[in-house]
Amino acid sequence: MKDNWRGLMKVLEIQHIRNGKVIYEEKNILNTLHTEGEEFLLRLAFLSLTVPTAYYIGLDNRSTIAVGDTLSTVSAVEPSTNGYLRVPASPGSDFSLTLNDSGNNQVNTPIVTFRSNPGDWNRPVQNLFLCTSSDNSGYLIASAELSTSLDMDAGDMINMRLGLALRNCPP
Q: Measuring CA to CA, how many Å separate 162 from each of 30, 58, 67, 76, 147?
């Protein structure tokens, strides 16, 4: 995966919180741009594809991330119990445009939160992803692998924020 172009998505920060304490934190996690994501961006920019009403951020437990992964690949290993849902972010209102540390344009998501409630998710999460739908009908744009697998106990939270740029995404 180190040879993949990393210019689209970066996890700016992620925290796993249990009982009000941060038990895991990581910053500047780079992505893999999926074939579907590339198709989506090209159709959006050059073939008049309509901007979705929301983008979605999700978590999964794929053992490896592959360029050819799809939303069907992800949903097979996504949590499905105790409050897990992909978190929507609306174009226009939930994203902000800024200059990153390298002076390049970057769009940032707000901090999004996942909560395990009322019980655990019965499955760890190892990756996060950005897509265009709350189900399998859209495009899987990009995924990022965490440095460790996270087990969500009842009441745990994951907070994260993504940055998206077309160049100079590495820290």
A: 10, 12, 19, 23, 16
